[in-house]
Amino acid sequence: MSIVTVPSIIDRALFERAGAQLDANYALSKRNKKNEYLLAGRIRCVCGRSRTGEGVLLGKHLYYRCSDRVLSFPLRGVCKERGINARIGDQLVWDKIVDLMSSPELMLSQVERWIDSKQDKAANSTSDVRPLENELASLGEQLGRHNRAYGAGLFTIEQLREYTQPIKDRIAAVELQISNSKGDTLVEKKPVLPQKEELELFADEARNTLHNLSFSQKRAILLNTVDKIVGTPSELQIYGAIPIENHVEFKTSHRHGQDATRHRIPFEFRIELPPPRTQRVILARTEKGRIISTAPPPAANGLHS
């Protein structure tokens, strides 16, 4: 049976952009949601699983719950993390994004934080290379000793090859590690960052744009800026980047477009969540573990006369 090679119809970059747009379209589609979850598709649990929106009592209570129980079915789920109030989490994250985009000072502080983190990484990379360079020098000495021993007639050429081949293989591996480490450091030394004037222009635009938006408009902006949210019932850790060149007018465009990421402000921040007023009691679940109904906890004995 012969194998026929089929040429690519579109290039890899276009294919990846199209895939990213399809992902964004799916995430924005109202048909995929019974309720509105601003952070859907971005929020994850500390266990590594995604958190999915779950509405209890026909949407009266909305939560982001770890999907471990559902994905592990029919086995028992491992993760014990409780749900996160979706309405509170959505509002706090959106408010934080608006504050960041509307303030050139906050954006500049994120730029400085990012530069400091890269410099620390570069310094650590340099220090990480030193043990490899020491090992490389030691391997070179070992190779030299074997060659001198062969020159003195202590063993045959076959024995020399047998003794030195593992050393040569290790030298090649270490040299590759050093090259990769130094290459990563050089790349990190040349970030493309926006100028102060660009930040001020962007902030002015944001202040005029990011208010009184519909849910779908907020959702599109969040998908363009937030890469990942790791959440527990007590806090959210948000990671992302603001694409400055698109300004705030990217309600339907996607950050993976060809020119959307030339100037980006990487950001990272933490939001503390308020404790729940009550820890509701789970009354019923589906066979896959989804919660069907809950109730307030019974009043503690002795608290009421």
Placed side by side, the strands forming the largest sheet appear as 1-5-6-7
Protein structure class: alpha+beta
Largest sheet: 4 strands, mixed
How much helicity do the residues have?
A: 40-55%
Number of helices: 7
Description:
With 305 residues, the chain is an alpha+beta fold. Helices cover 47% and strands 17% of the residues. It contains 7 helices and 9 strands. The chain has helices spanning 12-28, 68-72, 86-101, 104-151, 157-188, 196-209, 215-225; strands spanning 43-45, 51-56, 61-66, 84-85, 226-231, 235-243, 264-272, 281-285, 291-295. Strands 1-5-6-7 form a 4-stranded mixed β-sheet. Helix 4 (104-151) packs antiparallel against helix 5. The longest helix is centred in the middle third of the chain and has 48 residues, at 104-151. The radius of gyration is 28 Å and the shape is extended. Mean pLDDT is 77; it is low at 186-191, 248-262 and 300-305.
Brief summary:
The chain is α+β, with helices and mostly antiparallel strands. The chain is built from 7 helices and 9 strands, in the order αβββαβαααααβββββ.
Present the secondary structure layout:
Layout: H1 12-28, E1 43-45, E2 51-56, E3 61-66, H2 68-72, E4 84-85, H3 86-101, H4 104-151, H5 157-188, H6 196-209, H7 215-225, E5 226-231, E6 235-243, E7 264-272, E8 281-285, E9 291-295
Parallel strand pairs: 1-5
Antiparallel strand pairs: 2-3, 3-4, 5-6, 6-7, 8-9
Helix pairs in contact: 4-5
Fill in the keyword field for this structure.
305 residues, 7 helices, 9 strands, extended, disordered C terminus
